[in-house]
Specification:
single chain; alpha+beta; 4-stranded mixed beta sheet; 8 helices; 51% helix
Length: 200
């Protein structure tokens, strides 16, 4: 079982969530150390503000502090040897430091998927030039009309959520008159069998 030890700079807590501004790296690092523990790695962590004795007791850490000052913190040691200084390694880096293989999640993003996302975003943004651009590019990549139609439907569904929300809010402000008014309007929507219905 590998042993990994972290010597942190002075701070109120290791998660970093109790200060006036949260450093997103610290909660992520704390979660990654917890993950290492679940992988069978022995993890120890010391905070200079709360456990100064641990820093004095370790000759490697004491020497690094004497030579570099607090700039060397956080120090990460594996089996007593410094493997990282001045930064909080990512989960992938931590895994490599202790010899754990991390499976890479394959990316599902392709040029075709990017164009489908663009089509959905164009619909949600009511951007006609964007829709034409992404649809033409998607078609050149061999994307089917059926898949593009699905992207349009998803973009439209996303767009309808805030549209309904703003109408509901207006309806509350205006004592329920908005929904009635909306139902009475057929602007730009021809009546069945009447293609010449007037558009606003």
């Amino acid at each position: 079982m590998a042993k990994l030890t972290v010597y942190d700079p002075p701070m109120c807590c290791s998660t970093g969530v109790c200060g006036p501004s949260v450093d997103p790296v610290l909660p992520r690092f704390a979660a990654d150390l917890e993950w290492l523990s679940t992988q069978g790695v022995e993890v120890a962590r010391f905070n200079m503000a709360q456990q100064p004795g641990a820093f004095v007791a370790n000759e490697v850490v004491k020497r690094a502090l004497a030579e570099e000052g607090n700039d060397c913190l956080p120090l990460v040691l594996v089996e007593g040897r410094v493997v990282s200084r001045g930064t909080h390694p990512t989960r992938k880096e931590l895994a490599a430091l202790v010899g754990i293989a991390v499976e890479e999640t394959p990316s599902l993003c392709s040029a075709a998927v990017e164009e489908l996302v663009g089509i959905g975003a164009a619909i949600a943004a009511n951007c006609m030039p964007c829709l034409k651009y992404h649809a033409d590019k998607a078609r050149s990549l061999g994307v089917s009309d059926e898949d593009m139609a699905r992207a349009v439907a998803i973009g439209n569904a996303v767009k309808q959520v805030p549209a309904r929300a703003i109408l509901n809010l207006a309806d509350r402000f205006l004592n329920g008159l908005v929904q009635e008014e909306v139902r009475s309007q057929s602007c730009c929507t021809p009546a069945p069998g009447k293609a010449d219905s007037k558009c606003c």
